[in-house]
Amino acid sequence: MERIQKVIANSGYCSRRKAEELINKGLVKVNGNIINEMGIKVSNNDYIEVEGNLINKSEEKVYYLLNKPRGVITSTNDDKNRKTVIDLIKDTRRIYPVGRLDYDTTGLLLLTNDGNLANLLTHPKNNVEKVYIAKLEGIIDKDKLLQLQRGIIIDGYKTSKSKAKIKKINKKSNNSVVELIIHEGRNHQVKKMFKAIGYNVLKLKRERISFLTLDGLKSGDYRQLSIKEVKKLYGELKNNC
Ligand code: URA
Q1: Residue 65: what pLDDT?
Q2: pLDDT at residue number 241
Q3: Cβ(108) to ligand 1 under 6 A?
Q4: Probe target for ligand 1 pocket from 136, 179, 181, 206, with the most ligand atoms within 8 Å of CB
């Protein structure tokens, strides 16, 4: 017997958090009955429906690493009919992005039908390192970067410690390039962190998540993770807990 939200996430339908949202909205049925209790346990013999779809409990897990281009939305669908990251990947299985990159942000994005891994990767307590390269308007002030490193208040909470390094300063065109390494992944976090110290982000790219990089992938290209990489990722997550 396992908790319903875990079974839904493991089936690849969506992440555990999304499953909880759907349960709260009354969109999950077990053996034909709507459930509204989060911790309910189900067995292999139970029929689980989510938003009218029968859950396949034994779907093969798949993991993609995409070099996301600009102008693509990180979502499984878009009500404005914009291109989504799912449209870029030729796989008919139901996969979804792990976390989010903004429409104009480029770089490393993982997609999977493994709700368990998605959940672990996005949970702040798991301390997964995310490396961003930001091009900023203006010349960066080293002291201000220190504020970012110590943690800074955005949206009423203090960000955890980060690492920041100046990569380039362009006096002529009045911009700077900074590498920022964070462990959280709140909405628009990097842009908000720079805004909080007085800089607009002109361009943003995610270059690395944990040990995974964009090596060999052009913008818009993707590849599957190897079993070895998936195991290593799970291993890192366990060690960070
Ligand atoms: N932080 C942002 O501000 N935007 C992203 O796309 C990712 C992290």
Answers
A1: 98
A2: 44
A3: no
A4: 206
Chain centroid to Cα 55, Å, comes to 23
Residue 14 domain boundaries: 2-54
Task: Give pLDDT < 50 ranges for the chain.
Answer: 241
Q: How far is the CA of 189 from the centre of ligand 1 (A)?
A: 5
What is each CA distance from 152 to 13, 165, 200, in whole angstroms? 35, 16, 16
E strands, 95-241, where?
A: 96-97, 106-112, 130-137, 153-154, 157-158, 163-170, 175-182, 201-209, 212-213, 222-224
Domain count, the chain: 3
102 is an active site residue: yes
Claim to verify: residue 148 and residue 177 sit in the same structural domain: yes
pTM assigned to the model: 0.81
* Distance of alpha carbon 213 from alpha carbon 34, whole angstroms: 42
Q: Give pLDDT, residue 56.
A: 75
Query: What integer pLDDT is reported at residue 58 of this predicted model?
Result: 67
146 and 116 belong to one structural domain:
no
- State the burial class of residue 75 (Cβ atoms within 10 Å of its Cβ: 0-12, 13-18, 19+): middle
Together in a domain, 81 and 200: no
Indicate which CATH number applies to the domain containing 46.
3.10.290.10
Catalytic residue among 102, 104, 114, 143: 102
Predicted local distance difference test score (pLDDT) of residue 75: 92
